[in-house]
Amino acid sequence: MTISTDGRTEPGAQPEGGVEQQVLEFLLTRTKIACTVEQDLFASGLVSSLFAMELVVFLEKRFAVTIGGADLRLDNFRTVNNMIALVARLREEKAGASGE
């Protein structure tokens, strides 16, 4: 894995730790509040629709996926588990498209 000097994962690199751990750490760093993987981030007030866009950018850069179109639904970002599922599905689609 290669991580740039600003902490971003290089495209195609596998980030340290799992998706769950990294998303939870990102949320803790940005909100200063620990959350659970099933917590509704919008209903709890931790995440706004504007912050959801930060989550999109974080997930795309950290996990080398592209989130667009129908995937830009708030439900995909409502819980950490939903984000984990989204990243897993996008990685599978990317691997299938590239023949890996």
Can you walk me through this structure?
The chain is mainly α and 100 residues long. It is 47% helix and 0% strand. The longest helix has 19 residues, at 80-98. The chain starts with 18 loop residues before the first helix and ends with a helix.
Q: Helicity level, as a percent range?
A: 40-55%
Instruction: Report the average pLDDT across residues.
Output: 86
The string of secondary-structure elements, in order, is HHH
Net shape: globular
Number of strands: 0
Distance between the termini: 18 Å
Number of contiguous helices: 3
Classification by helices and strands: mainly alpha
Residues in β-strands, percent: under 5%
What Rg do the Cα atoms give?
13 Å
Characterize the main sheet: none
Q: Low-confidence parts, pLDDT < 50 over ≥5 residues? A: 1-15
What does this entry show, briefly?
By secondary structure, this protein is mostly helical. Helices cover 47% and strands 0% of the residues.
Short descriptors:
mainly alpha, about 100 residues, 3 helices
Summarize the helices and strands and which ones pair or pack.
Blueprint: H1 19-31, H2 49-63, H3 80-98
Helix pairs in contact: 1-3
